[in-house]
Design brief:
With about 350 residues, this protein is an alpha/beta fold. The chain has 12 helices and 13 strands. The protein has 2 domains: about 170 residues, Rossmann fold (3-Layer(aba) Sandwich); about 150 residues, Response regulator (Rossmann fold, 3-Layer(aba) Sandwich). The two termini are about 20 Å apart.
């Protein structure tokens, strides 16, 4: 998705004339069916590929649910531009505009206090999504929820993809024949829960499966393709063909690594192309698996998260049962499972995602 399209997707407000807009702090009785709902949505960075896909899915699903629920749904989508201060102000604006509920993709998962206090004092429920806040913060008020996935599982599955390939053809990966997998790691953010857990669990899975690894280097690339490409350049200068495996915390960074290899004149079909693994299963990530640039990725269900958020929002605002497709764990969490994606099943995944 190009920059202009992403900006359009996130800047747009999905639908629709607001026929009924009460203050979100007002109490709706079970007997009165609202004619419209208004949801404020703030994402940490509109240029994050996975976030862009979630928002696109959320907008599309909102149009479907307008028909199913017989109401108007307005989504006020804002970009926090990687600033927690900006996001705090956006939460204040959502309240002033009478939003019934807020969906927040936190900039800083450890700094949710201001948003929580604003929400609690104004009786505006909040669904945090994709970037999981600290558990103690989620317990500070009964109207706080989280929709996302288990970061530990994503690292485990990323490791499983590599282990399965090693079991099939270890020699082609262990190019120097020393019986050790030499790797570099591209990590998301310093202190980010998903980044730390994925980095740890992928290595644990590989070593628990009986393979020896050697970390040549690692760098923070902030989930960003261009940064990852830049960070790969000194790796290639220092280690060159010693790099047998590239582990990236998300697809954009995996693709940035591939970009750096291509800039060196390397071809993904050649024997000197290292194994590259990502996480997210974005459209561009799936295409890279299809082309053989990535050995695999781990699907982080953008469609499922978007739909889970809207179904939960509808349940809370309209006072109706949550769709049986989703389970609210501990009264707080909707967790979507990850799925391994390799050349064997990528076409199936792509077809399912386009439905």
């Amino acid at each position: 998705m190009n920059r202009e399209k992403r900006t359009w997707v996130l800047a747009g407000i999905c639908c629709m004339t607001v026929v009924f807009s009460g203050c979100s702090g007002s109490k709706k009785t079970a007997e009165i069916q609202p004619q419209s709902i208004k949801i404020g949505v703030s994402v940490y960075d509109q240029y994050d590929t996975f976030m862009s896909e979630i928002i696109s899915q959320l907008q599309s699903y909102a149009r479907e649910k307008e028909k199913d629920w017989g109401i108007s749904i307005t989504l006020n989508i804002q970009n926090a531009d990687q600033s927690q201060f900006t996001q705090n102000d956006q939460m204040e604006n959502f309240i002033e505009e009478g939003c019934d509920l807020a969906c927040i993709n936190l900039v800083d998962r450890t700094d949710a206090s201001i948003i929580i206090e604003k929400a609690k004092s104004n009786h505006v429920p909040v669904i945090f999504f994709n970037r999981e806040l600290v558990e103690e913060d989620l317990e500070r008020w009964e109207e706080l929820y989280y929709v996302g996935a288990d970061a530990f599982e994503s690292g485990q599955l990323q490791g499983e993809i590599l282990v399965e390939q090693c079991e099939q053809d270890f020699v082609s990966i262990d190019t120097n024949g020393d019986g050790i997998l030499q790797y570099v790691m591209l990590e998301g953010e310093a202190g980010h829960n998903d980044s730390m857990v994925r980095s740890m669990s992928v290595i644990n899975k590989i070593t628990e499966s009986g393979y020896t690894v050697e970390k040549l280097d690692d760098e923070i690339a902030n989930w960003n393709r261009d940064q990852a490409s830049t960070k790969m350049t000194p790796f290639l200068n220092s280690y060159g063909s010693e790099i047998e495996v590239i582990l990236a915390n998300n697809d954009d960074m995996a693709l940035g690594a591939a970009d750096a290899l291509k800039a060196r004149g390397m071809d993904s079909q050649s024997d000197d192309w290292p194994v590259i693994l990502g996480v997210d299963g974005t459209d561009v990530g799936l295409k890279a698996v299809e082309k053989g640039e990535l050995l695999g990725t781990v699907l982080n269900d953008a469609k499922g998260q978007a739909r889970g958020m809207l179904e939960l929002a509808g349940s809370l605002i309209l006072k109706k049962d949550l769709s049986p497709e989703y389970t609210l764990q501990d009264g707080k969490y909707i967790r979507l499972p990850y799925q391994k994606v390799t050349a064997e099943n990528v076409s199936e995944i792509q077809s399912r995602q386009s439905e």
